[in-house]
Write a structure and sequence with these properties.
It contains 30 helices and no strands. By secondary structure, the chain is mostly helical.
Length: 638
């Protein structure tokens, strides 16, 4: 070992050790080992440990520009050691600090200053300037809140009081977002990493190919189905694109899809994974914590909208394939039976997970532990295409899980700053009143403004950060206006996620464009067209709560059927294909009847109009299918 390589290797070993410790600490905490050994620990002590490990990894692994570095500079190394030591002290002496908080000892100021500086610099490096700037605006506002004119005036805060509060208080940085990230989400990321290390990623891709590859446009259907399966357990739309897109995007391009459409389809499908039960990235767990409801309730409410979202995407890629004569991909020789014969054991951990969540009604973190145990047992016993878990890969899973959690923990910690500022200054209540008063009694106008705000604030931010920020800033005004809490939170989640495919900053679409070699802006615009349903569905389930399983069974079935018919009709009109090529008047008819069929209750046109439009659309669609079949038969005979 040469002297030149020693520091980089030592840093690598240190990062691996810290990341492994993050996972081990999470597992031990959820197994309540400390209680069984007779130790009483506060949740904040555990969170302080995890935040210290996160900040240490962040400054050892990532340079000032945000990229991975082999060796940190001396300043980053010193700050990593400082953050770790200060937060280890906070974890050790948290009970005393909490008891003395009223007297503001210098130790709390030290902890708060290190946390604020460390988290802010961490999100600047890893989450980008958008989130950094938003959080910085709130921190600056807190310092001048007493001098802000009008209804946004807030409580006076000194710099020391602000640092003490946002960097230490249990209502700020050590609040529920950080708890959910370090206790629940970390275990689900561990579950996902285990699954992929055992060959689960290849299994799901092959399963999608086998199920849809033989159909027209099969390459795009593989992307839709595969990304839905992969994305529902992935924590990020962008990482989903990067992981599955390298396979699906070239496959779609070889199949005949335009490169802009290929990237857009993958971006839309990957973004939808964050909205799809059972896991929904980290947002579902955060939502359950914010609303104080069971996780199963959140997952059930998200089920129908997610199915309708993918119905719109699936129909569009199918109709594009019909319009452009795109056949099945050349490698569509897999069968579902063959894939399941090799990888049926990957279904066991999902069965365990679903049964634990919905059958045994365990807490999500306990269900994740059981599912992780199941995939570990299955992965050691059986492989998939030569990939099998081993002690070496298991060790790598611990390291990869810890390092991949750095960004998320930094984001939820920064979101805790915003929550703290909203609480201590009274800004949260003031923002709600200002927004509701600005639109008067028009719920539709409030929803439109909220949607725009969600998309703008969500640009350039990861999933968890988008949701936590919007849940604090926008959701309260929707609830105040009469929207049910679950509908309000799903509304902001949908439009926060739509920032991933909405230019000018569409991270998922831009990541897909980098793979397809297409124009990022054109890919983003194509993604908006392909994922158009996601911009309408939130308005539909706010107006018709039956789409969130809030109603009787007939009401749920009727609302879902009307929305499905409407989405299909509008999609056919957008693409210009249904059984045959549609002319301008036919396209307009499909779009108009589809829009009328959607159960949007903001314009009181009566249920009979929605049903009548749906019936008329079905009749029109049937007629075009018959005409298209007749023309195809005539062409074949001639």
């Amino acid at each position: 070992m040469s002297e030149a390589t020693l520091p980089s290797r030592l840093v690598g070993w240190t990062i691996a050790g810290l990341a492994t410790l993050m996972c081990v600490a999470c597992i031990l905490w959820n197994l309540e080992v400390h209680t069984r050994l007779g130790f009483a620990l506060l949740r904040q002590q555990y969170m302080a440990l995890q935040l210290g490990l996160t900040l240490a990894i962040a400054f050892l692994r990532y340079g000032p520009g945000g990229g991975v570095v082999a060796r940190p500079n001396i300043l980053d190394f010193a700050f990593a050691v400082t953050c770790l030591c200060v937060l280890l002290y906070a974890a050790w002496d948290f009970v005393w600090l909490l008891r003395e908080q009223f007297y503001r000892p210098w130790q709390i100021t030290l902890v708060g200053a290190v946390v604020v500086l460390g988290v802010m610099e961490g999100i600047r490096r890893r989450a980008g300037m958008m989130l950094f700037s938003i959080v910085a605006v709130f921190l600056v506002y807190a310092l001048v809140a007493d001098r802000v004119p009008g209804r946004l005036i807030g409580q006076e805060l000194s710099p020391q009081r602000l640092v003490d509060y946002v960097g230490f208080d249990s209502s700020a940085v050590f609040s529920s977002p950080l708890a959910v990230g370090t206790i629940t989400v970390l275990l689900f990321v561990f579950f996902g990493q285990l699954l992929f290390a055992a060959g689960g990623g290849a299994f799901f891709t092959d399963l999608a190919m086998a199920a849809t590859g033989r159909a027209r446009g099969g390459s795009a259907k593989i992307a839709v189905v595969g990304s839905a399966l992969f994305g529902s357990i992935s924590g990020s739309a962008v990482s989903n694109v990067a992981t599955t897109g390298v396979i699906t995007i070239p496959l779609m391009q070889r199949g005949g899809y335009k490169k802009e459409d290929a990237g857009a389809i993958e971006a839309v499908a990957s973004t939808g994974g964050q909205l799809t039960p059972p896991i929904m990235g980290a947002a579902a767990f955060l939502m359950a914590e914010f609303l104080d409801i069971p996780y199963a309730t959140v997952a059930a409410a998200a089920l129908v909208p997610a199915a309708l979202f993918y119905l719109g995407a699936f129909m569009q890629v199918d109709l594009i394939a019909a319009r452009d004569n795109i056949a099945a991909p050349e490698n569509a020789d897999l069968t579902v039976r063959r894939v399941l014969a090799k990888g049926w054991h990957f279904l066991i951990p999902f069965a365990v997970l679903l049964y634990a969540l919905f059958g045994m009604r365990l807490d999500p973190e306990d269900a994740a532990l059981l599912a992780s145990l199941a995939i570990a047992a299955a992965g050691f016993l059986r492989g998939y295409d030569g990939t099998r878990l081993s002690l070496k890969t298991l060790g790598a899973v611990f390291v990869d899980t810890g390092t991949s959690m750095v960004d998320l923990i930094l984001v939820v910690a920064a979101a805790g700053f915003v929550i703290g500022v909203l609480n201590v200054t009274g800004l949260g209540f003031a923002l709600t009143l200002v927004l509701v008063d600005a639109v008067g009694s028009s719920l539709f106008l409030l929803l439109m403004i909220s949607a725009v705000v969600c998309i703008i604030l969500g640009m350039g931010m990861p999933t968890s950060g988008v949701y936590v920020l919007l849940a604090s800033l926008v959701a309260p005004s929707l609830v105040e206006a009469g929207v049910t809490p679950i509908a309000a939170h799903l509304f902001i989640l949908y439009f926060g996620m739509m920032s991933m495919i909405t230019p000018p900053v569409a991270l998922a679409a831009f990541a897909a464009a980098a793979i397809s070699k297409a124009s990022p802006m054109r890919t983003g615009l194509a993604a908006m067209r392909i994922g158009w349903a996601a911009f309408i569905l939130p308005f539909a389930f706010v107006a018709t709560p039956a789409l969130l399983f809030q109603g009787t069974v007939p009401e749920v079935l009727t609302a879902a059927a009307l929305t499905a018919v409407g989405v299909t009709g509008v999609t056919a009109g957008i693409v210009g294909q249904w059984g045959r090529a549609l002319g301008p008047i036919a396209r307009l008819g499909f779009v108009a009847l589809g829009a009328l069929a959607l159960p949007l209750g903001f314009i009181d046109i009566g249920a009979f109009v929605h049903v009548g439009a749906a019936v008329a659309l079905i009749a029109l669609a049937t007629a075009f299918l018959v005409l298209g079949s007749a023309r195809a038969e005539t062409d074949r005979l001639t």
